[in-house]
């Protein structure tokens, strides 16, 4: 038994107070010369034993009551037992040992991490479990891949098992006890012996425990499955971590400054003043002086990098390490390119110059030394094959879209791509509303009502601070006043706007009809222009302000999709391959050691082969490699950032844990790590002690008058 | 020096006097019934004339009626020989001042002695513990009271109580039938003591038992813990009186009731005297009731408890 306030145990000495008072009372007496001794002795002979028994009983109750009082305030924790006693069961048992290897387990106290404690505890338990019991050992990050499964370990196996446990390393994943327990349950379902128990070795940090466990734990309780929890953690005190490290600029271009933002939280007791962070770009180490990090605050640190070469670049940020080092690093893959890719889907192609629907737009984007790479696709061609993943997609006067293309557009925009939609005579209003507006759930910001003649006298730019069209406000009013469309499409009333939709520009007519409408869709943005991109409905494409507006608009929505490269530790890596050159085998170099493991190649429903890895346990840069026939070895980097949700400074105690475990009552012990002796901690017992104290007081109050009655 | 002569008590008792309920054999004429026939006016019975008898005792009227000679006999009245047996064991030394048990016993003894001597009865005294410590032969002289008082004043309460041997010796030493008044707390071996009382009765003595107790000994009024030290020995007992007071009082009540019932059964006058009682009132009531009641009817002679039942009336008569 251990105590949270052992100093108060000195108060137990006061338990002798009733005995001392009793003895002092015995010293306070009369001395009487007595004649009828015969009758006195006769009386005492028949009463003395009973009297003494009653008095000792009363004395014991009083002594115990005082002892219980001090025992309660010393806050005892569960009953004592050694490891063998703790694991003892009546009969043969199937045991599953779960070793928590989540990110929080890297937290160090006195130079030893919680995970090292967990390894010691696991080794101790494995040694303590007899050869008659079957043993399954899993880690919380990979519960479906046990180190050993339903094995009855002999002495030789024990050494190997201990070595295996010793070689385990902590992951950068967050705990997810729901999925871990589900996997454990599958192991238990195939267990041989009727007695089943799960031993979880964890630090009891709060992240990952949820009420979703209740249902499974209720089932375990009804099946009389025992849950033992070995607590190896310490109360979290302080931490400094990188909450996020992201690319701020949507597109990274060669020789152009690319901005990044690192969000750093300092929950330590002391501020970090002029701390030195390390920035590693493709193995090149750069020092970075951090701004002062006050205690308890989160600050955003802007970082600017310039890349000389196009391609995928590996970037890592590392802040000074503290007791929990695994959340002090973050990793990123940056796709640096020479040009911004724009796909123009032309709904009304023409034969001559400026006869196609999007010719004016293409000129506006490519005039001069602009880093725009235009790829024009005819609407008829786009209907048959996908357009890949450009930075910006422009739809100009398309009559209609197939559901497959709409689905593709949605997934691209949701992942970050920009989309501009221009109206035109060919637009089928009903189809647009059905496929693109979808009752407000689709890509189109507003419902289109009709194509109507215009009675406007210019364009009015809405004064939004972050509007992509805000540079137009610097132009003279006359230049925007010359924008006079002959027709435009009207949209539904603005009251129906949802928070992701806003009007960037309006026509200067009595109804202030929307001219440009923006909608945020997932990580991407959609701009809907209620006019054509050519001169069919207005002469604006011939104006200089048109070039500026188009460039600003395309630049604001353009974003390079990195759908596969950046993941959070715990997520699997996936990467699509060219179906024509799909390899048979692939391998993955994993951090931090660079060990290579095979990658599986799976085919999607649409036949596209995908490189697929298991979940990424560690944060860092991964490198997949494979051979493509006729091309040679191909490589593709990935970055996994640590899942910092696991480093929230909150730890559960026994009662808080029980709320997630339904009717299952865990047996909680604490592993001190000093030896194989697992001394107790875990459940606080003060409530039971107070209950006993109250019972003793009641018994004393009844017993004292009874013992002291005149006889 | 303690003063055992209390004029108030003696004055009260003088008005009542002490009357023996059984015939006693005195040496001189007195006011008590004697077993012998003598010259008192009280007719006793007739007996047949025998030559040599004094003719003045012939009942001529009876001769006239029956033509036979009968001689009238008359009862003799004699003085009383009372013997006071006072317990002087250490147990009698409980209580302070006038509440002391021996003081109380001595006061009773002196008062009774004064009353008896005033009637010209003879009074003797023995102070007894395990043995007879002092002895004063019965005498009816006027100086006897002073000797009784002096003897009692000289007495020190020491030693254990064992009345039986001393009383047995007294029974054998007193030659004529008289009254034996035993004044004691009776904290002795009752079995043997009953035997010695039986012996007194056997010799024809009238026995009166005055049971002197201190109120503490019955009620045990102590509130604190007490170490009880045996007043006649060295034994010590620690006890908390509140924890067994009722049981103790029950035991004492049983003891007193048993003595009283046994005395009643055997025709021994018994009087329980508490040291804080008004002795004048208590003794006067006792003597008055005793005279009104007349001779005690008993169903047997006192015997020890081992015989279980008192002797039946078929035993030798108490008078001879």
Task: Describe the protein's topology.
The complex is a heterodimer of chains A (711) and B (320).
Chain A: E1 2-3, H1 17-27, E2 29-34, H2 37-73, E3 76-77, H3 83-87, E4 93-99, E5 108-109, E6 112-113, H4 114-128, E7 134-139, E8 148-151, H5 155-166, H6 177-189, E9 195-202, H7 213-222, E10 226-231, E11 240-247, E12 252-253, E13 257-266, E14 276-281, E15 284-289, E16 297-306, E17 311-318, E18 329-337, E19 340-346, H8 359-366, E20 372-378, H9 379-382, E21 392-396, H10 403-415, E22 418-422, H11 429-437, E23 448-453, E24 459-461, H12 477-481, E25 487-491, E26 501-507, E27 514-521, E28 524-529, H13 544-557, E29 566-568, E30 572-576, E31 586-590, E32 595-603, E33 609-615, E34 620-628, E35 632-641, H14 654-658, E36 667-670, H15 686-707
Chain B: H1 7-16, E1 29-48, H2 60-66, E2 70-78, E3 81-87, H3 101-118, E4 122-128, E5 132-139, H4 144-154, H5 163-173, E6 179-184, H6 190-202, E7 206-213, H7 215-219, E8 225-230, E9 236-239, H8 245-266, E10 269-274, H9 279-293
Parallel strand pairs in B: 3-4, 3-6, 6-7, 7-10
Antiparallel strand pairs in B: 1-2, 4-5, 8-9
Helix pairs in contact in B: 1-3, 1-9, 3-4, 5-6
Overall description:
The complex is a heterodimer of chains A (711) and B (320). With 711 residues, chain A is an alpha/beta fold. Chain A folds into 5 domains: 2-78 and 687-707, no CATH class; 83-235 and 650-683, 3-Layer(aba) Sandwich (Rossmann fold); 240-337, Immunoglobulin-like; 340-557, 3-Layer(aba) Sandwich (Rossmann fold); 566-641, Immunoglobulin-like (Sandwich). Helices cover 26% and strands 30% of the residues of chain A. In chain A, the strands form 8 sheets. Chain A has an 8-stranded mixed sheet, sandwiched between helices. In chain A, strand 34 (620-628) and strand 35 form a beta hairpin. In chain A, helix 1 (17-27) packs antiparallel against helix 2. Chain A is elongated and about 145 Å long. The two termini of chain A are 44 Å apart. The model of chain A is unreliable at 676-681 (pLDDT under 50). Chain B folds into 2 domains: 7-22 and 80-307, von Willebrand factor, type A domain (Rossmann fold, 3-Layer(aba) Sandwich); 29-78, no CATH class. In chain B, 35% of the residues lie in helices and 25% in strands. The radius of gyration of chain B is 22 Å and the shape is elongated. Mean pLDDT of chain B is 82; it is low at 308-320. The A-B interface holds A 25-26, 28-44, 46-47, 51, 708, 710-711 and B 91-94, 101, 185, 187, 214, 217, 222, 224-233, 235, 237-240, 242-248, 251-252, 255. Strand 2 of chain A pairs parallel with strand 8 (225-230) of chain B, so a sheet runs across the interface.
């Amino acid at each position: 038994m251990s105590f949270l306030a052992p100093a108060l145990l000195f108060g137990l000495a006061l338990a002798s107070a009733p005995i001392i008072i009793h003895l002092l009372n015995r010293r306070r007496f009369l001395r009487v010369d007595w004649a009828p001794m015969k009758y006195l002795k006769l009386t005492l002979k028949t009463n003395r034993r009973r009297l003494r028994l009653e008095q000792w009983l009363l004395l014991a109750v009083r002594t115990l009551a005082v002892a219980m009082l001090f025992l309660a305030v010393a806050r005892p924790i569960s009953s004592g037992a050694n490891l063998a006693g703790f694991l003892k069961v009546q009969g043969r048992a199937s045991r599953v040992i779960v070793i928590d290897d989540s990110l929080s387990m890297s937290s160090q106290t006195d130079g030893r991490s919680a995970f090292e404690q967990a390894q010691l505890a696991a080794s101790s338990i494995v040694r303590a479990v007899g050869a008659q019991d079957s043993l399954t050992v899993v880690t919380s990050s990979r519960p479906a891949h046990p180190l050993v499964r339903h094995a009855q370990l002999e002495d030789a196996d024990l050494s190997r098992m201990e070595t295996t446990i010793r070689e385990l390393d902590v992951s950068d994943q967050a705990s997810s006890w729901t999925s871990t327990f589900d996997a454990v349950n599958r192991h238990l379902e195939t267990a041989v012996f009727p007695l089943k128990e799960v031993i979880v070795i964890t630090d009891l940090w709060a992240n990952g425990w949820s009420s979703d466990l209740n249902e499974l734990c209720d089932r375990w309780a009804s099946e009389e499955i025992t849950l033992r929890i070995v607590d190896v953690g310490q109360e979290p005190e302080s931490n400094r971590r990188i909450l996020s490290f992201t690319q701020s600029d949507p597109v990274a271009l060669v020789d152009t400054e690319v901005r990044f933002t690192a969000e750093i939280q300092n929950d330590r007791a002391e501020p970090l003043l002029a701390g030195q962070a390390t920035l590693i770009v493709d193995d090149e180490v750069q020092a970075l002086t951090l701004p002062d990090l006050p205690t308890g605050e989160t600050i955003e640190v802007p970082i600017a990098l310039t890349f000389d070469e196009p391609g995928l670049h590996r970037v890592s940020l590392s802040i000074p390490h503290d007791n929990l080092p695994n959340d002090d690093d973050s990793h990123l893959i940056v796709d640096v390119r020479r040009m911004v890719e724009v796909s123009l889907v032309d709904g009304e192609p023409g034969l001559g110059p400026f006869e196609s629907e999007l010719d004016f737009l293409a000129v506006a984007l490519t005039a001069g030394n602009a880093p725009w790479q235009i790829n024009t696709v005819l609407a008829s061609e786009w209907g048959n094959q996908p357009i890949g993943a450009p930075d910006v997609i422009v739809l100009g006067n398309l009559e209609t879209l197939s559901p497959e293309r709409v689905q593709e557009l949605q997934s691209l925009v949701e992942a970050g791509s920009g989309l501009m939609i221009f109206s035109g005579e060919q637009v089928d209003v009903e189809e647009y509303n059905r496929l693109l507006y979808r009752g407000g759930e689709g890509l189109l910001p507003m419902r289109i009502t009709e194509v109507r003649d215009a009675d406007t006298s210019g364009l009015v730019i809405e004064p939004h601070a972050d509007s992509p069209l805000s540079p137009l406000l610097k132009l003279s009013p006359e230049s925007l006043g010359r924008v006079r469309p002959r027709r435009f499409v009207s949209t539904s009333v603005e009251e129906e706007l949802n928070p992701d939709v806003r009007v960037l520009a309006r026509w200067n007519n009595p109804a202030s009809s929307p001219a440009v409408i923006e909608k945020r869709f997932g990580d991407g943005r959609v701009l809907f222009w209620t006019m054509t991109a050519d001169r069919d409905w207005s002469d604006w494409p011939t104006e200089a302000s048109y070039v500026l507006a188009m460039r600003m608009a395309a630049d604001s929505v353009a974003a390079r999709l990195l759908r596969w490269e950046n993941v959070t530790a715990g997520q699997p890596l996936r990467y699509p391959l060219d179906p024509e050159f799909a390899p048979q085998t692939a391998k993955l170099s994993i951090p931090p050691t660079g060990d290579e493991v095979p990658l599986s190649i799976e085919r999607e429903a649409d036949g596209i082969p995908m490189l697929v890895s298991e979940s990424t346990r560690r944060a860092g840069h991964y490198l997949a490699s494979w051979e493509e026939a006729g091309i040679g070895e191909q490589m593709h980097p990935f970055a996994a950032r640590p899942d910092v949700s696991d480093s929230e400074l909150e730890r559960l105690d026994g009662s808080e844990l029980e709320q997630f475990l339904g009717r299952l009552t865990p047996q909680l012990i604490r592993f001190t790590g000093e030896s194989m002796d697992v001394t107790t901690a875990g459940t606080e017992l003060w409530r039971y002690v107070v209950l006993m104290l109250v019972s003793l007081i009641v018994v004393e109050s009844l017993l004292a008058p009874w013992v002291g009655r005149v006889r | 020096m303690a003063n055992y002569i209390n004029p108030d008590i003696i004055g009260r008792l003088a008005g009542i006097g002490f009357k023996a309920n059984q015939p006693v054999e005195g040496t001189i004429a007195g006011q008590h019934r004697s077993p012998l026939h003598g010259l008192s006016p009280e007719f006793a019975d007739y007996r047949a004339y025998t030559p040599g008898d004094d003719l003045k005792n012939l009942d001529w009227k009876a001769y006239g009626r029956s033509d036979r000679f009968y001689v009238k006999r008359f009862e003799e009245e004699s003085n009383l020989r009372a013997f006071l047996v006072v317990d002087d064991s250490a147990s009698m030394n409980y209580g302070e001042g006038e509440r002391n048990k021996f003081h109380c016993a001595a006061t009773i003894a002196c008062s009774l002695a004064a009353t008896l001597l005033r009637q010209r009865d003879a009074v003797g005294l023995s102070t007894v513990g395990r043995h007879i410590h002092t002895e004063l032969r019965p005498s009816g002289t006027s100086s006897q009271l002073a000797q009784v008082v002096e003897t009692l004043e000289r007495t020190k309460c020491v030693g254990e109580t064992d009345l039986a041997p001393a009383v047995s010796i007294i029974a054998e030493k007193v030659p004529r039938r008289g009254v034996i008044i035993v004044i004691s707390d009776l904290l002795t071996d009752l079995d043997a003591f009953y035997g010695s009382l039986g012996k007194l009765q056997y010799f024809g003595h009238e026995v009166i038992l005055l049971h002197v107790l201190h109120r503490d000994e019955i009620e045990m009024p102590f509130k604190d813990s007490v170490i009880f030290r045996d007043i006649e020995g060295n034994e010590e007992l620690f006890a908390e009186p509140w924890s067994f007071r009722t049981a103790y009082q029950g035991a004492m009540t049983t003891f007193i009731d048993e003595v009283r019932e046994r005395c009643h059964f055997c025709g021994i006058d018994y009087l329980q005297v508490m040291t804080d009682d008004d002795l004048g009132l208590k003794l006067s009531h006792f003597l008055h009731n005793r005279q009104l009641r007349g001779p005690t009817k008993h169903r047997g002679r006192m015997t020890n408890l081992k015989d279980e039942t008192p002797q039946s009336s078929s035993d030798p008569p108490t008078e001879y």
